[in-house]
Structures are given as structure tokens and as C-alpha cells.
Amino acid sequence: MQITEKRSFRDRLRGLFLLGHPLPVLLHVIAVTLFVLLAAWSRLVWPVVLLVVGAHTAMQLAIAMLNDYCDREIDAVGKPEKPIPRGLVTPPEALIAGCTMIALMLVLLLPLPPLAWLLSLAYLALAMAYNLGLKSTPFSGVVFALAMPLIPLYAFAGVGRSLPFLFWLVPVGFLLGVSLNLANSLPDLEEDAAGGARTLAVVLGLRRSFVVATLLIVLAALLILSLDISDMLRVQPVVLVAMLAVAGGLLAAGLACAGPEKARQTRKLFFYLVTLACLALAGGWFLGVLI
Fold first, then answer.
1. How do residues 219-251 score in pLDDT, each as one tens digit?
2. What is the CATH code for 163-291?
3. Fold (CATH) for 1-155
4. pTM above 0.85, yes or no
5. 3-state secondary structure string across the chain
């Protein structure tokens, strides 16, 4: 671990910025913002919207920062470009920053309904269990999948709204959550395997991880489509077609740009495209049901 003796103020700021995993956190913020806007559209109260989004943003930053803190020794060997091994941030600073974000999350949650508290804390507990060891086991995908449906549930609870169709978030969110977990694990699969980690992606292997990550999104789309066809949960036809087309296009682009035979650097792009496909599917589904 390269701890720089004299770090400039700019280095410290850059280190804290990178410690927060800005792009993945931004995707989470976009997701929760979309769900909050959908939940509160008929009675939009901006201070509440900002509290709900702000609390979730603080939590995602805390999870990202504490993830790097927990992985600092592994990263020193396998990912020396990360902020702690580079010496931009010291381990105590990373721990303090993560805990500070948790404290901020709790403060922002105070004015929100108790159910929003419970869902947010459940998400944080799952994420920390992932950080503290479950990420290196096949249960990593299950933990990730259980956490994903909590985002829209939290968004609706945060604005004090509940709808019967939210029940179906559990199976759909589970499928998308496992897919996201596999796609997220692909860039680091070789390091995880070499380090003895038994993540779901390592157990499945590179080729099957790509296949399963793709099939799970297809299954989620088929479940949404079957609910519409059976009249159990109708979606506006125009939204349904657009949602499936956008998600399908993003997934096709991911498979065209990345794959087991493609350069390893393309796997991160695959993860981002899978994330956007999941957002299009889940967000479009919400919009099509609510309007």
C-alpha cells in the first residue's frame, strides 16, 4: 500500500471522490430518483423528494466507502489504482468518511415515515453483510437480489404511498438483482478466483455468468409481459413496447460489445449497459402501471 507522506488538499478531495465509486452511485441515485418521482407524481412535495433521494445517496456513498475500507488489503495486491492503495486516502479516513455518510443518512431519514427507515436500514444491513464477507461467497448474488427490490419500496414508503402491485417487485427485483450482481462481478472475476473468493460469478465461470446475467433479464421481461397478458397487472401498451425495446436494445448492445471472448476491459461496459437495461425495465414497468 503506497501511503503518500505529503498529500495535497486536491489529492485528498480526489481520493474521497473516487472512494465514493461515483459512477455506480450515480446510477443508484438516478434509479431512486426515478422511483420517487413516479411515486410522488400526483402530489409532488420537493422537500420530501430531496430527503428521500438525499438519504439514499448518503447510504450508497457509505456502502461504497466502507467497501473499499473492507477490501483495502485485497485491493493493495489486485487493484493498486484504487484510492486507498494509491495513498490518496488512508484507511482511518475511509472508515470515518463511511461512518459520516451513515450518520448523514440517519439524519435525513428522521422526517420520513417509519417504514422508509426500516427499508433503508434493511438495505444497509444487506449491503454491509455483503461488504464484510458475503461478497466472497455464492450468497453474494442472493444478498444483492434481496436488496434491489428495497429501492423502489423505499421510494414509495418515503413519500407515504403504497400500492398493491408493489408485491410483484420481489420476484422481478430478485431476477434483476442477481443479473446485476453477476454483471458487476465480471470485471474482477479472475482476481476473485485467484484470491479464493467463491462469488456466484466465480462458481458459474465466465461464460455461464454472461449467459445467466442475460437470461435473468429476459425472464424478468417475460414475467412482466405475462402479468400484462393475464390481466393481473396491466401496463400501458405504448410504454410496454418502448420499455421492452429499450431494455432489449441495451442488452443486445452489451452482448455485442462484451463477452467471454472479448477484451476484459469491455466487461465494465457490459455492467453499465445491464444496469441501464434493468433501470429501463423496472422504471418503464412502474410508469406503465401507474399512468
1. 999 999 999 999 888 889 999 999 999 999 999
2. 1.20.120
3. Tetracycline Repressor; domain 2 (1.10.357)
4. no
5. CCCCCCCCHHHHHHHHHHHCCHHHHHHHHHHHHHHHHHHHHHHCCHHHHHHHHHHHHHHHHHHHHHHHHHCHHHHHHHCCCCHHHHCCCCHHHHHHHHHHHHHHHHHHHCCCCHHHHHHHHHHHHHHHHHHCCHHHCCCHHHHHHHHCCHHHHHHHHHCCCCCHHHHHHHHHHHHHHHHHHHHHHHHHHHHHHHCCCCCHHHHHCHHHHHHHHHHHHHHHHHHHHHHHHCCCCCCCHHHHHHHHHHHHHHHHHHHHHCCCCCCCCHHHHHHHHHHHHHHHHHHHHHHHHHC
